[in-house]
Amino acid sequence: MVDEAEVRDEVRTWLDENWDPDMPLLAWRGLLADTGWGTPSWPKAWHGRGLKPSMDPVVAAVFHDVGAVGVAAGVSMYLVAPTILAHGSDDVKRRFLRPILTGEHKWCQLFSEPGSGSDLAGLTTRADRDGDEWIVNGQKVWNSGAHKATYGILMARTNWDAAKHKGISYFAFPMQQEGVEVRPLHQMNGHASFNEVFFSEARVPHANLIGDEGDGWRVALTTLMHERSAVATKRPRFKNDGGAMVEQARAESREYFDTYKWYPQRAGRANLIQPEAKRLGVSTDPLIRQQITEVESVRRIADWTLRRARDARAAGKEPGPEGSLAKLNMSVIARACHATHTSIQGAAGMLDGPETAAEGMVAEVLVSTPAMSIAGGTDQIQRNIIGERVLGLSKEPEADKDAVFREVRKN
Ligand SMILES: Cc1cc2nc3c(=O)[nH]c(=O)nc-3n(C[C@H](O)[C@H](O)[C@H](O)COP(=O)(O)OP(=O)(O)OC[C@H]3O[C@@H](n4cnc5c(N)ncnc54)[C@H](O)[C@@H]3O)c2cc1C
User: Do residues 66 and 15 touch, judged by C-beta distance below 8 A?
Assistant: First the structure.
Protein backbone atom coordinates (compact mmCIF):
# COMPACT_ATOMS: atom_id res chain seq x y z
CA MET A 1 0.00 0.00 0.00
CA VAL A 2 1.56 3.31 -1.10
CA ASP A 3 0.90 6.35 1.05
CA GLU A 4 0.48 10.00 0.12
CA ALA A 5 4.02 11.05 1.01
CA GLU A 6 5.52 8.27 -1.13
CA VAL A 7 3.38 9.22 -4.12
CA ARG A 8 4.23 12.89 -3.66
CA ASP A 9 7.98 12.07 -3.60
CA GLU A 10 7.75 9.73 -6.56
CA VAL A 11 5.89 12.15 -8.81
CA ARG A 12 8.14 15.05 -7.75
CA THR A 13 11.25 13.03 -8.69
CA TRP A 14 9.69 12.00 -11.98
CA LEU A 15 8.78 15.60 -12.82
CA ASP A 16 12.27 16.81 -11.85
CA GLU A 17 13.69 14.35 -14.36
CA ASN A 18 11.12 14.70 -17.14
CA TRP A 19 9.19 18.00 -17.09
CA ASP A 20 10.41 20.10 -20.00
CA PRO A 21 8.32 23.17 -20.84
CA ASP A 22 9.97 23.38 -24.27
CA MET A 23 8.68 19.97 -25.37
CA PRO A 24 5.76 19.96 -27.85
CA LEU A 25 2.47 19.66 -25.91
CA LEU A 26 1.42 16.53 -27.79
CA ALA A 27 4.69 14.75 -27.03
CA TRP A 28 4.46 15.67 -23.33
CA ARG A 29 0.89 14.42 -23.02
CA GLY A 30 1.93 11.26 -24.88
CA LEU A 31 4.59 10.73 -22.22
CA LEU A 32 1.96 11.22 -19.48
CA ALA A 33 -0.24 8.63 -21.19
CA ASP A 34 2.67 6.18 -21.47
CA THR A 35 3.90 6.54 -17.89
CA GLY A 36 0.46 6.81 -16.23
CA TRP A 37 1.28 10.09 -14.46
CA GLY A 38 -1.55 11.95 -16.24
CA THR A 39 -4.24 9.64 -14.83
CA PRO A 40 -2.62 7.84 -11.86
CA SER A 41 -5.81 6.12 -10.66
CA TRP A 42 -6.50 4.49 -14.04
CA PRO A 43 -5.45 0.84 -14.46
CA LYS A 44 -1.81 0.19 -15.34
CA ALA A 45 -2.88 -1.47 -18.60
CA TRP A 46 -4.71 1.71 -19.65
CA HIS A 47 -2.50 4.77 -19.16
CA GLY A 48 -2.64 4.76 -15.38
CA ARG A 49 -0.59 3.61 -12.42
CA GLY A 50 -3.33 1.69 -10.61
CA LEU A 51 -3.25 4.06 -7.63
CA LYS A 52 -6.26 4.78 -5.40
CA PRO A 53 -8.52 7.60 -6.70
CA SER A 54 -7.59 9.60 -3.58
CA MET A 55 -4.07 9.92 -5.06
CA ASP A 56 -5.29 11.85 -8.14
CA PRO A 57 -5.51 15.20 -6.29
CA VAL A 58 -2.16 14.49 -4.56
CA VAL A 59 -0.45 14.06 -7.94
CA ALA A 60 -2.34 17.02 -9.45
CA ALA A 61 -1.14 19.27 -6.61
CA VAL A 62 2.51 18.38 -7.32
CA PHE A 63 1.99 19.02 -11.05
CA HIS A 64 0.54 22.43 -10.16
CA ASP A 65 3.42 23.20 -7.79
CA VAL A 66 5.97 22.42 -10.47
CA GLY A 67 3.88 24.24 -13.10
CA ALA A 68 3.67 21.11 -15.28
CA VAL A 69 0.82 20.64 -17.77
CA GLY A 70 -1.59 17.74 -17.25
CA VAL A 71 -3.67 15.70 -19.68
CA ALA A 72 -6.50 17.41 -21.62
CA ALA A 73 -9.63 18.28 -19.59
CA GLY A 74 -13.33 18.57 -20.50
CA VAL A 75 -16.23 16.35 -21.54
CA SER A 76 -13.91 13.84 -23.22
CA MET A 77 -11.88 13.29 -20.08
CA TYR A 78 -14.62 13.37 -17.44
CA LEU A 79 -17.64 11.80 -19.20
CA VAL A 80 -16.35 9.79 -22.14
CA ALA A 81 -13.13 8.29 -20.72
CA PRO A 82 -14.75 6.82 -17.55
CA THR A 83 -17.50 5.32 -19.71
CA ILE A 84 -14.98 3.74 -22.10
CA LEU A 85 -12.90 2.44 -19.18
CA ALA A 86 -15.98 0.84 -17.64
CA HIS A 87 -17.62 -0.62 -20.76
CA GLY A 88 -15.31 -0.38 -23.80
CA SER A 89 -13.70 -3.43 -25.41
CA ASP A 90 -9.89 -3.53 -25.38
CA ASP A 91 -9.95 -2.39 -29.01
CA VAL A 92 -12.13 0.63 -28.15
CA LYS A 93 -9.90 1.49 -25.18
CA ARG A 94 -6.78 1.19 -27.34
CA ARG A 95 -8.12 3.47 -30.08
CA PHE A 96 -9.88 6.14 -28.04
CA LEU A 97 -8.34 6.65 -24.60
CA ARG A 98 -4.94 7.95 -25.65
CA PRO A 99 -6.19 10.72 -28.03
CA ILE A 100 -8.54 11.86 -25.23
CA LEU A 101 -5.59 12.25 -22.87
CA THR A 102 -3.45 14.05 -25.44
CA GLY A 103 -6.34 16.32 -26.47
CA GLU A 104 -6.22 15.18 -30.13
CA HIS A 105 -9.87 14.09 -29.99
CA LYS A 106 -12.61 16.34 -28.62
CA TRP A 107 -15.95 14.71 -27.85
CA CYS A 108 -19.55 15.81 -27.43
CA GLN A 109 -22.60 14.12 -25.95
CA LEU A 110 -25.34 13.06 -28.40
CA PHE A 111 -28.13 11.96 -26.03
CA SER A 112 -31.09 14.40 -25.94
CA GLU A 113 -33.64 14.58 -28.74
CA PRO A 114 -36.56 16.92 -29.39
CA GLY A 115 -38.93 14.26 -28.03
CA SER A 116 -36.70 12.71 -25.39
CA GLY A 117 -34.73 14.59 -22.80
CA SER A 118 -35.89 13.48 -19.37
CA ASP A 119 -37.43 10.44 -21.03
CA LEU A 120 -34.07 9.61 -22.59
CA ALA A 121 -34.93 5.93 -23.10
CA GLY A 122 -37.70 7.04 -25.49
CA LEU A 123 -35.13 8.16 -28.09
CA THR A 124 -35.89 7.48 -31.74
CA THR A 125 -32.64 8.24 -33.59
CA ARG A 126 -32.01 4.93 -35.30
CA ALA A 127 -28.95 2.91 -36.26
CA ASP A 128 -29.40 0.07 -38.77
CA ARG A 129 -26.70 -2.55 -39.35
CA ASP A 130 -25.07 -2.64 -42.77
CA GLY A 131 -22.18 -5.12 -42.83
CA ASP A 132 -19.36 -3.79 -40.69
CA GLU A 133 -21.10 -0.47 -40.19
CA TRP A 134 -24.28 1.06 -38.81
CA ILE A 135 -26.27 3.67 -40.71
CA VAL A 136 -27.60 6.46 -38.51
CA ASN A 137 -30.70 8.61 -39.16
CA GLY A 138 -32.44 11.03 -36.83
CA GLN A 139 -31.88 14.17 -34.79
CA LYS A 140 -30.27 15.18 -31.51
CA VAL A 141 -30.53 18.53 -29.74
CA TRP A 142 -28.84 20.67 -27.03
CA ASN A 143 -25.48 19.09 -27.86
CA SER A 144 -22.84 21.26 -26.19
CA GLY A 145 -19.64 21.66 -28.18
CA ALA A 146 -20.87 19.49 -31.09
CA HIS A 147 -19.63 22.16 -33.50
CA LYS A 148 -16.03 21.46 -32.42
CA ALA A 149 -16.16 17.73 -31.75
CA THR A 150 -14.19 14.96 -33.44
CA TYR A 151 -16.40 12.23 -31.90
CA GLY A 152 -19.74 12.07 -30.11
CA ILE A 153 -21.05 9.54 -27.61
CA LEU A 154 -24.19 8.57 -29.49
CA MET A 155 -27.22 6.72 -28.13
CA ALA A 156 -29.28 5.24 -30.96
CA ARG A 157 -32.07 2.70 -31.23
CA THR A 158 -30.84 -0.53 -32.81
CA ASN A 159 -33.78 -2.80 -31.94
CA TRP A 160 -37.40 -1.60 -32.23
CA ASP A 161 -38.80 -4.95 -31.13
CA ALA A 162 -37.24 -4.85 -27.67
CA ALA A 163 -38.50 -2.92 -24.62
CA LYS A 164 -37.52 0.74 -24.64
CA HIS A 165 -34.46 0.48 -22.37
CA LYS A 166 -33.27 -2.73 -24.08
CA GLY A 167 -33.07 -1.67 -27.73
CA ILE A 168 -30.52 1.13 -27.43
CA SER A 169 -26.83 0.92 -28.36
CA TYR A 170 -24.02 3.29 -27.49
CA PHE A 171 -21.48 4.33 -30.14
CA ALA A 172 -18.26 6.29 -30.51
CA PHE A 173 -19.59 8.29 -33.42
CA PRO A 174 -17.27 10.14 -35.88
CA MET A 175 -18.63 13.68 -36.30
CA GLN A 176 -16.57 14.82 -39.29
CA GLN A 177 -18.43 13.11 -42.12
CA GLU A 178 -21.02 13.73 -44.79
CA GLY A 179 -24.45 12.99 -43.38
CA VAL A 180 -23.86 14.97 -40.17
CA GLU A 181 -25.15 18.52 -40.00
CA VAL A 182 -24.47 20.61 -36.90
CA ARG A 183 -26.59 23.76 -36.44
CA PRO A 184 -25.89 26.16 -33.57
CA LEU A 185 -28.76 27.20 -31.26
CA HIS A 186 -28.77 30.78 -29.97
CA GLN A 187 -29.65 31.10 -26.30
CA MET A 188 -31.47 33.96 -24.59
CA ASN A 189 -28.16 35.05 -23.00
CA GLY A 190 -26.64 35.68 -26.44
CA HIS A 191 -24.26 32.70 -26.47
CA ALA A 192 -24.51 29.72 -28.80
CA SER A 193 -22.86 26.87 -26.97
CA PHE A 194 -25.09 24.06 -28.02
CA ASN A 195 -26.46 22.70 -31.25
CA GLU A 196 -28.96 20.62 -33.14
CA VAL A 197 -27.32 17.65 -34.87
CA PHE A 198 -28.99 15.99 -37.87
CA PHE A 199 -27.98 12.54 -39.15
CA SER A 200 -28.84 11.54 -42.72
CA GLU A 201 -27.44 8.14 -43.68
CA ALA A 202 -24.39 8.86 -41.48
CA ARG A 203 -22.08 5.93 -40.75
CA VAL A 204 -20.36 4.48 -37.72
CA PRO A 205 -18.21 1.31 -37.71
CA HIS A 206 -19.55 -1.68 -35.75
CA ALA A 207 -16.15 -1.72 -34.03
CA ASN A 208 -17.10 1.61 -32.40
CA LEU A 209 -19.84 0.07 -30.24
CA ILE A 210 -19.20 0.79 -26.56
CA GLY A 211 -20.62 -2.10 -24.57
CA ASP A 212 -22.74 -4.75 -26.26
CA GLU A 213 -25.36 -4.15 -28.92
CA GLY A 214 -28.61 -3.35 -27.06
CA ASP A 215 -26.82 -2.61 -23.79
CA GLY A 216 -26.55 1.16 -24.38
CA TRP A 217 -28.84 2.14 -21.52
CA ARG A 218 -26.56 0.54 -18.93
CA VAL A 219 -23.54 2.22 -20.54
CA ALA A 220 -25.32 5.60 -20.54
CA LEU A 221 -26.05 5.34 -16.81
CA THR A 222 -22.29 5.43 -16.19
CA THR A 223 -21.99 8.63 -18.27
CA LEU A 224 -24.96 10.25 -16.51
CA MET A 225 -23.60 9.45 -13.04
CA HIS A 226 -20.35 11.17 -13.96
CA GLU A 227 -22.21 14.09 -15.58
CA ARG A 228 -24.00 14.95 -12.34
CA SER A 229 -20.69 15.53 -10.61
CA ALA A 230 -20.27 18.49 -13.04
CA VAL A 231 -16.46 18.49 -13.22
CA ALA A 232 -16.46 18.20 -17.00
CA THR A 233 -16.84 21.94 -17.47
CA LYS A 234 -14.23 22.94 -14.90
CA ARG A 235 -11.21 24.72 -16.37
CA PRO A 236 -7.72 23.48 -15.53
CA ARG A 237 -5.42 25.92 -13.70
CA PHE A 238 -2.06 26.96 -15.14
CA LYS A 239 0.88 28.79 -13.60
CA ASN A 240 1.70 32.15 -15.17
CA ASP A 241 5.37 31.73 -15.94
CA GLY A 242 5.33 28.18 -17.24
CA GLY A 243 6.99 28.62 -20.64
CA ALA A 244 5.96 27.76 -24.19
CA MET A 245 4.06 24.56 -23.50
CA VAL A 246 1.99 26.14 -20.73
CA GLU A 247 1.05 28.96 -23.10
CA GLN A 248 0.02 26.41 -25.73
CA ALA A 249 -2.07 24.44 -23.21
CA ARG A 250 -3.64 27.66 -21.92
CA ALA A 251 -4.61 28.72 -25.45
CA GLU A 252 -6.08 25.27 -26.16
CA SER A 253 -8.04 25.38 -22.92
CA ARG A 254 -9.31 28.92 -23.62
CA GLU A 255 -10.54 27.81 -27.03
CA TYR A 256 -12.18 24.65 -25.69
CA PHE A 257 -13.83 26.21 -22.63
CA ASP A 258 -15.09 29.21 -24.62
CA THR A 259 -18.22 27.08 -25.10
CA TYR A 260 -18.75 27.20 -21.34
CA LYS A 261 -17.75 30.81 -20.65
CA TRP A 262 -21.27 31.70 -19.42
CA TYR A 263 -21.33 28.79 -16.92
CA PRO A 264 -20.15 30.95 -13.98
CA GLN A 265 -23.18 33.21 -14.67
CA ARG A 266 -25.37 30.07 -14.96
CA ALA A 267 -24.25 29.15 -11.43
CA GLY A 268 -25.46 32.55 -10.10
CA ARG A 269 -22.21 34.54 -9.51
CA ALA A 270 -22.66 34.58 -5.71
CA ASN A 271 -19.35 36.46 -5.51
CA LEU A 272 -20.98 39.58 -7.03
CA ILE A 273 -23.79 39.78 -4.48
CA GLN A 274 -22.12 41.46 -1.51
CA PRO A 275 -20.00 43.96 -3.52
CA GLU A 276 -23.08 44.99 -5.50
CA ALA A 277 -25.20 45.33 -2.32
CA LYS A 278 -22.51 47.61 -0.86
CA ARG A 279 -22.06 49.60 -4.07
CA LEU A 280 -25.79 50.30 -4.25
CA GLY A 281 -26.06 51.08 -0.51
CA VAL A 282 -28.58 48.30 0.29
CA SER A 283 -26.36 46.04 2.41
CA THR A 284 -28.04 47.26 5.61
CA ASP A 285 -31.55 46.54 4.32
CA PRO A 286 -32.89 43.72 6.56
CA LEU A 287 -34.66 41.88 3.74
CA ILE A 288 -31.59 41.98 1.50
CA ARG A 289 -29.40 40.79 4.40
CA GLN A 290 -31.77 37.89 4.95
CA GLN A 291 -31.51 36.88 1.29
CA ILE A 292 -27.72 37.15 1.34
CA THR A 293 -27.64 34.89 4.41
CA GLU A 294 -29.82 32.37 2.65
CA VAL A 295 -27.44 32.24 -0.32
CA GLU A 296 -24.46 31.72 2.00
CA SER A 297 -26.29 28.99 3.96
CA VAL A 298 -27.24 26.94 0.92
CA ARG A 299 -23.74 27.35 -0.53
CA ARG A 300 -22.10 26.00 2.61
CA ILE A 301 -24.48 23.08 2.92
CA ALA A 302 -23.88 22.24 -0.75
CA ASP A 303 -20.13 22.40 -0.20
CA TRP A 304 -20.33 19.85 2.64
CA THR A 305 -22.40 17.51 0.45
CA LEU A 306 -19.87 17.93 -2.34
CA ARG A 307 -17.01 17.07 0.00
CA ARG A 308 -18.84 13.94 1.15
CA ALA A 309 -19.28 12.93 -2.51
CA ARG A 310 -15.61 13.67 -3.26
CA ASP A 311 -14.46 11.60 -0.30
CA ALA A 312 -16.70 8.73 -1.37
CA ARG A 313 -15.14 8.80 -4.84
CA ALA A 314 -11.65 9.13 -3.44
CA ALA A 315 -12.37 5.99 -1.41
CA GLY A 316 -13.07 4.24 -4.71
CA LYS A 317 -16.89 4.21 -4.54
CA GLU A 318 -18.92 4.67 -7.74
CA PRO A 319 -20.66 8.06 -7.99
CA GLY A 320 -24.12 7.55 -6.45
CA PRO A 321 -27.20 9.57 -5.49
CA GLU A 322 -25.06 12.21 -3.80
CA GLY A 323 -24.40 13.38 -7.40
CA SER A 324 -28.14 14.11 -7.71
CA LEU A 325 -28.10 15.98 -4.39
CA ALA A 326 -25.14 18.06 -5.54
CA LYS A 327 -26.76 18.77 -8.90
CA LEU A 328 -30.02 19.85 -7.23
CA ASN A 329 -28.11 22.03 -4.78
CA MET A 330 -26.48 23.87 -7.68
CA SER A 331 -29.98 24.79 -8.95
CA VAL A 332 -31.09 25.90 -5.49
CA ILE A 333 -28.02 28.15 -5.22
CA ALA A 334 -28.48 29.55 -8.73
CA ARG A 335 -32.12 30.40 -7.99
CA ALA A 336 -31.29 31.99 -4.62
CA CYS A 337 -28.58 34.09 -6.32
CA HIS A 338 -31.00 35.08 -9.08
CA ALA A 339 -33.59 36.27 -6.51
CA THR A 340 -30.99 38.16 -4.46
CA HIS A 341 -29.41 39.88 -7.48
CA THR A 342 -32.91 40.93 -8.57
CA SER A 343 -33.71 42.42 -5.14
CA ILE A 344 -30.40 44.28 -5.04
CA GLN A 345 -30.50 45.67 -8.58
CA GLY A 346 -34.22 46.23 -9.09
CA ALA A 347 -35.18 46.92 -12.70
CA ALA A 348 -31.59 48.00 -13.51
CA GLY A 349 -30.59 44.33 -13.30
CA MET A 350 -32.22 43.81 -16.68
CA LEU A 351 -29.83 46.23 -18.38
CA ASP A 352 -26.97 44.85 -20.43
CA GLY A 353 -23.74 46.58 -21.49
CA PRO A 354 -20.46 47.91 -20.08
CA GLU A 355 -21.92 50.60 -17.81
CA THR A 356 -24.39 48.30 -16.04
CA ALA A 357 -24.04 46.16 -12.90
CA ALA A 358 -20.72 44.27 -13.02
CA GLU A 359 -20.45 45.21 -16.72
CA GLY A 360 -23.58 43.35 -17.75
CA MET A 361 -22.71 40.20 -15.78
CA VAL A 362 -25.74 40.48 -13.49
CA ALA A 363 -28.04 40.75 -16.51
CA GLU A 364 -26.33 37.66 -17.90
CA VAL A 365 -26.89 35.84 -14.58
CA LEU A 366 -30.61 36.53 -14.79
CA VAL A 367 -30.95 34.93 -18.22
CA SER A 368 -28.47 32.09 -17.60
CA THR A 369 -29.49 30.59 -14.24
CA PRO A 370 -32.61 28.80 -15.61
CA ALA A 371 -30.26 26.47 -17.54
CA MET A 372 -28.90 25.14 -14.24
CA SER A 373 -32.25 23.46 -13.50
CA ILE A 374 -32.30 21.70 -16.88
CA ALA A 375 -28.78 20.68 -18.00
CA GLY A 376 -27.58 17.21 -17.01
CA GLY A 377 -31.07 16.14 -15.85
CA THR A 378 -33.78 18.54 -14.60
CA ASP A 379 -34.51 19.34 -10.96
CA GLN A 380 -37.67 17.23 -11.09
CA ILE A 381 -35.73 14.24 -12.38
CA GLN A 382 -33.08 14.66 -9.64
CA ARG A 383 -35.92 14.77 -7.08
CA ASN A 384 -37.34 11.55 -8.51
CA ILE A 385 -33.91 9.89 -8.19
CA ILE A 386 -33.44 11.14 -4.62
CA GLY A 387 -36.98 10.04 -3.71
CA GLU A 388 -36.46 6.55 -5.09
CA ARG A 389 -32.80 5.83 -4.28
CA VAL A 390 -32.21 7.83 -1.11
CA LEU A 391 -35.62 8.02 0.57
CA GLY A 392 -36.78 4.61 -0.66
CA LEU A 393 -40.11 5.90 -2.03
CA SER A 394 -41.96 3.73 -4.50
CA LYS A 395 -40.82 3.95 -8.12
CA GLU A 396 -42.46 6.31 -10.57
CA PRO A 397 -45.04 4.33 -12.63
CA GLU A 398 -43.78 3.56 -16.14
CA ALA A 399 -46.63 2.08 -18.13
CA ASP A 400 -44.57 1.45 -21.27
CA LYS A 401 -41.43 0.10 -19.63
CA ASP A 402 -41.78 -3.52 -20.75
CA ALA A 403 -43.75 -2.97 -23.95
CA VAL A 404 -42.16 -3.53 -27.37
CA PHE A 405 -40.82 -0.09 -28.33
CA ARG A 406 -42.27 -0.20 -31.85
CA GLU A 407 -45.76 -0.24 -30.27
CA VAL A 408 -45.13 2.43 -27.62
CA ARG A 409 -46.62 5.91 -28.08
CA LYS A 410 -43.73 8.30 -28.83
CA ASN A 411 -42.98 11.96 -28.11
C1 LIG B 1 -26.87 24.14 -20.74
C2 LIG B 1 -27.35 22.83 -21.28
C3 LIG B 1 -26.43 21.94 -21.85
C4 LIG B 1 -26.86 20.72 -22.35
N5 LIG B 1 -25.95 19.90 -22.97
C6 LIG B 1 -26.35 18.73 -23.51
C7 LIG B 1 -25.43 17.90 -24.24
O8 LIG B 1 -24.25 18.23 -24.40
N9 LIG B 1 -25.87 16.73 -24.77
C10 LIG B 1 -27.17 16.32 -24.65
O11 LIG B 1 -27.50 15.25 -25.15
N12 LIG B 1 -28.09 17.09 -23.99
C13 LIG B 1 -27.71 18.29 -23.43
N14 LIG B 1 -28.62 19.09 -22.76
C15 LIG B 1 -30.02 18.66 -22.73
C16 LIG B 1 -30.52 18.26 -21.34
O17 LIG B 1 -29.96 17.04 -20.94
C18 LIG B 1 -32.06 18.19 -21.43
O19 LIG B 1 -32.52 19.49 -21.74
C20 LIG B 1 -32.67 17.71 -20.14
O21 LIG B 1 -32.39 16.36 -19.92
C22 LIG B 1 -34.21 17.91 -20.13
O23 LIG B 1 -34.81 17.39 -21.26
P24 LIG B 1 -35.84 18.26 -22.12
O25 LIG B 1 -35.21 19.58 -22.40
O26 LIG B 1 -36.27 17.44 -23.28
O27 LIG B 1 -37.08 18.53 -21.15
P28 LIG B 1 -38.32 17.54 -20.91
O29 LIG B 1 -37.81 16.19 -20.60
O30 LIG B 1 -39.28 17.70 -22.03
O31 LIG B 1 -38.93 18.15 -19.58
C32 LIG B 1 -39.87 19.24 -19.57
C33 LIG B 1 -40.32 19.48 -18.14
O34 LIG B 1 -41.04 18.31 -17.65
C35 LIG B 1 -40.46 17.82 -16.45
N36 LIG B 1 -40.51 16.36 -16.41
C37 LIG B 1 -40.23 15.51 -17.44
N38 LIG B 1 -40.34 14.22 -17.04
C39 LIG B 1 -40.69 14.26 -15.72
C40 LIG B 1 -40.95 13.24 -14.73
N41 LIG B 1 -40.85 11.95 -15.05
N42 LIG B 1 -41.27 13.63 -13.48
C43 LIG B 1 -41.37 14.97 -13.15
N44 LIG B 1 -41.14 15.97 -14.06
C45 LIG B 1 -40.80 15.61 -15.32
C46 LIG B 1 -39.01 18.28 -16.50
O47 LIG B 1 -38.44 18.37 -15.21
C48 LIG B 1 -39.14 19.66 -17.17
O49 LIG B 1 -39.49 20.64 -16.22
C50 LIG B 1 -28.23 20.34 -22.26
C51 LIG B 1 -29.15 21.22 -21.68
C52 LIG B 1 -28.73 22.46 -21.20
C53 LIG B 1 -29.75 23.40 -20.59
Answer: yes
